[in-house]
Design brief:
The protein is an alpha+beta fold. It contains eleven helices and eleven strands.
Length: about 290
């Protein structure tokens, strides 16, 4: 069975994950403390992600690169990318795995950069994934946040915002390069539209995501895309996904559900409807005809 790509953070708060969650506009914080060995999955990151591993290891795969985040290490990940992960707890602690994830939206970073009056230094090399040790000050901060997960509905938004700002200031104190990486993420360099689209055609990306990855505003991306392909991004992407879906139904033993998720669709009913609109028959009936 093909593994579904989880859209994070929204997909992590639902079953079967059931992790502790704090939310504020522009921010989602997820705490996880479980016993696990070699659990694997795939995520599409809707926001920038800062993750702190407190026990165990969290392995991230992006393309052909592998990053292993050990106990008392943190990782910064770019938004709008698909990653594979594998997580395992400490063998001498009943495979205990503990980590915190901070999903940050653009406006949160913008507010912090303005408040802290941070200026961009000489550009550092932008990497989509950046691993660094956790300082004692950051460890103390993370410990201070734990009680809030016990009563998330009773925590005022203002307090969560203050704690977020504290985190960002602690980060800037621990390692200036981390802040510069955040600045670099906010200053995306223009990329070739065709390359970006082809690399992400089967990922559950939105047109907004593609615009970000290409280093353009949404309006600029749509305009440039129209010039290249002579159609809108949404129509072109849907057609390419449907063509790939039909190919998989024809030449593989994959189920309709697996084909749906493999080709970037997130809902089987929607996939079946648009497939029928395009080809004149549902994917299930097409599969039956082939049989």
């Amino acid at each position: 069975m093909t593994q579904r790509i989880i859209k994070a953070p929204q997909g992590l708060a639902a079953s079967p994950f059931n992790q502790s969650v704090l939310k504020l506009k522009g921010l989602t914080v997820i705490e996880s403390c479980t016993n696990t060995v070699g659990k694997q999955g795939t995520m599409f990151l809707e926001d920038y992600l800062l993750m702190f591993v407190l026990n165990g290891t969290y392995t991230v795969r992006y393309g052909d690169q592998v990053y292993v985040v050990h106990k008392h290490e943190m990782v910064l990940l770019q938004k709008s990318i698909v990653i594979e992960y594998e997580k395992s707890g400490e063998p001498n602690q009943a495979y205990l795995l503990e980590y915190m994830m901070f999903f940050l939206k653009d406006e949160v970073l913008k507010d912090f950069i303005k408040m802290a009056d941070i200026q961009s230094a000489q550009p550092t090399v932008l990497v989509p994934i950046f691993v660094n040790p956790i300082s004692e000050r950051l460890l103390t901060y993370l410990e201070s946040l734990k009680p809030y997960f016990n009563e998330p509905d009773n925590i005022e938004d203002g307090l969560i915002k203050i704690k977020l700002l504290e985190l960002l200031f602690d980060l800037s104190h621990a390692n200036e390069n981390i802040v510069q990486q955040l600045l670099q993420l906010k200053q995306q360099v223009r990329s070739d539209i065709s390359t970006v689209v082809e690399q992400n055609i089967l990922n559950p990306v939105s047109v907004n995501d593609l615009a970000y990855l290409s280093g353009r505003s949404l309006s600029s991306f749509k305009r440039d895309f129209q010039t290249i392909y002579n159609t809108s991004p949404s129509l072109w992407i849907r057609q390419k996904r449907l063509e790939k879906a039909k190919e998989l139904l024809t030449y593989s033993a994959m189920s309709v559900t697996d084909v749906c998720f493999t080709t970037g669709f997130e809902n089987v009913a929607h996939f079946s409807r648009v497939f029928k609109e395009h080809f004149g028959y549902t994917p299930s009936s097409y599969k039956q005809q082939l049989s």
